[in-house]
Design a protein that fits this description.
alpha/beta; binds nicotinamide-adenine-dinucleotide; 42% helix; 20 strands
Length: 506
């Protein structure tokens, strides 16, 4: 039997910088989750039947309402997650950008397409895209608004209703956004929030949604996929990363160092696309390290105006500490910060050198303000080490003329050239990974189509004298078919002509 909410049981959300209570939310059980999904199903029928223009009007109203309350939302991000004000506002701005982009590109991305009908020349072949219905979104705590919005905005723009389960560490932001959505959308229950810890997420993964978009760790991603398998619910998994950065000897070193420091330390390193390890060409290694250390030393940790905020959870602080101690025990050199420089929820930005792939800091997701830098003898070695990972989310290369070729060799879902993380800020670029970083894509046209079902339609526009889709065939049909096979796919004239045209096009 489905479990229901115990009305006396509530989830508390704390400010990680002060441990003060920010607020409480209900803990929803399977029964509440199922009820939310049932309400969403009604909303999806109304929303999915609207024209793109009508949906765009409402999405625009939602975006404007969210923008109007951006200070309030940013303040909650700051309080619940611990990030400084500037980072909180940046997150709100990026989320708004995706709502705007998804609204603008949905109709184009879902436009029906005519394709070649091949041998069946008397047919019109069309691919069309339709809303799935109800999408369940399970989000993490590190970017509590931006990350889930990468699914929510695209799912809504594609004509679906959404049930969102935010992280138990940052539920109030989601509740606030749902409140704003409820006022902005004419269709009720279009964007609902269910709250609770892992059990509530598990309830959503098991419920009758048409797709689950999950963002979080690979371990939880596997559990979500197993739960969804029960109903064969498709899943989109945005998981962790161990993003490499490569610096070649002809890179612009000050720029590369500045990007590295930002890419590794923004959000206190708690980003799935953080720079997690750096490979630097031998000849520029020392100069690069000096520049990174110089810049790191200017950063302020803590305070509303700090560059680095509090870590969101004590569990994450423990992981970072463990990685640092493991690295030091295996011979890494600490140039700034280090395991001894951790106080409460604050970690001083740490630069390490003399690192290798035996260390957790080079193989597992650290998700903290750490910059491990490794010297490499050649770019081939850099590529080999960069690809020596079970993850494959983001990556970056800093180089001169060989930069693009270098980028092409990286086995990752996304690569920035002479910048870091920029692919996440370009809404038309699909976002996602491979391997333990997950599969499926948010953002861009692919991100819209991720939340659609594809339908193929074959429409007969005229009848041919010979109808292959009938049992009434002439006696010599097998003989004719043998001739056709040879002609079309063997050594026949038609097959040769097709091959010749293909070569011509190459
Ligand atoms: P997490 O896996 O601990 O939790 C993510 C969400 O899953 C939370 O809402 C949680 O309550 C829920 N959950 C927990 N157990 C569940 C279960 N059994 N079934 C269903 N849901 C369950 O992840 P986290 O610690 O919140 O987030 C950090 C991780 O997220 C990092 O690995 C980070 O790299 C990753 N991340 C990835 C992206 C991306 O786009 N690829 C973006 C942000 C974060």
């Amino acid at each position: 039997m489905a479990t229901a909410t115990n009305p006396t049981e509530r989830l508390s959300s704390y400010n990680p910088a002060t441990n003060d209570l920010v607020g409480t939310v209900p803990i929803h059980g399977q029964a509440e989750v199922d009820a939310a999904v049932a309400r969403a199903r009604v909303a999806a029928a109304r929303w999915g039947a609207l024209s793109f223009a009508a949906r765009a009007e409402e999405l625009t109203a939602f975006r404007k309402a969210l923008a109007a309350r951006s200070d309030e939302v940013a303040e909650l991000l700051h309080l619940e997650n611990g990030k400084p004000d500037l980072e909180a506002l940046t997150e709100v701005m990026m989320a708004l950008g995706h709502i705007q982009h998804a609204t603008a590109c949905a109709e184009g991305a879902m436009a029906p397409r005519r394709v070649s009908s091949g041998l069946l020349a008397n047919f019109r072949a069309t691919i069309s895209y339709h809303p799935l219905g109800v999408v369940g979104v399970i989000g993490p705590w590190n970017y509590p608004l931006f990350t889930p919005m990468g699914s929510i905005a695209y799912a809504l723009a594609a004509g679906n209703a959404v049930v969102w389960k935010p992280s138990e560490l940052t539920p109030l932001i989601a509740v606030k956004v749902a409140e704003i959505a409820a006022k902005a959308f004419a269709v009720s229950d279009l964007l609902q929030v269910v709250t609770g810890a892992g059990a509530t997420g598990a309830a959503l993964a098991k419920s009758a949604v048409d797709k689950i978009a999950f963002t979080g760790s690979p371990g939880t991603g596997r559990r979500v996929m197993m739960a969804a398998a029960e109903r064969l619910t498709p899943v989109l998994l945005e998981l962790g990363g161990k993003d490499p950065m490569i610096v070649a000897d002809d890179a612009d070193l000050p720029k590369a160092a500045e990007a590295c420091v930002y890419g590794a330390l923004t959000n206190a390193g708690q980003a799935c696309i953080s720079v997690e390890r750096v490979y630097v060409a031998e000849s520029v290694h020392d100069r690069f390290v000096d520049e990174v250390v110089k810049q790191v030393r200017t950063l302020k940790v803590g305070g509303d105006d700090g560059d680095l905020g509090a870590m969101t959870s004590p569990a994450q602080v423990a992981i970072v500490k463990d990685h640092l101690e493991d690295a030091v025990a295996k011979g890494a050199k600490v140039l700034t910060g280090g395991p001894a420089a951790i106080t409460g929820s604050y970690i001083q930005p740490t630069v390490l050198t003399d690192v290798d792939h035996r260390m957790k800091v080079m193989s597992d997701e650290t998700f903290g303000p750490v910059i491990p830098i490794k010297r490499v003898g050649s770019l081939d070695e850099a590529v080999r080490l960069a690809n020596d990972t079970r993850y494959g989310l983001g990556s970056s290369v800093f180089a001169g003329k060989g930069a693009r070729a270098l980028a092409d060799k990286l086995r990752a879902g996304m690569t920035s050239i002479n910048s870091v993380m920029s692919f996440a800020g370009i809404p038309s670029l699909p976002f996602g990974g491979i391997g333990d970083s997950g599969f499926g894509r948010i953002h861009g046209d692919e991100g819209i189509r991720e939340f659609t079902r594809i339908k193929s339609t074959a429409e007969q526009v005229m009848a041919l004298p010979v109808n292959m889709m009938s049992f009434r065939q002439p006696k010599d049909a097998p003989k004719r078919l043998r001739g056709m096979i040879k002609q079309l796919y063997g050594d026949g004239v038609l097959a040769k002509a097709t091959d010749w045209f293909r070569k011509l096009r190459q």
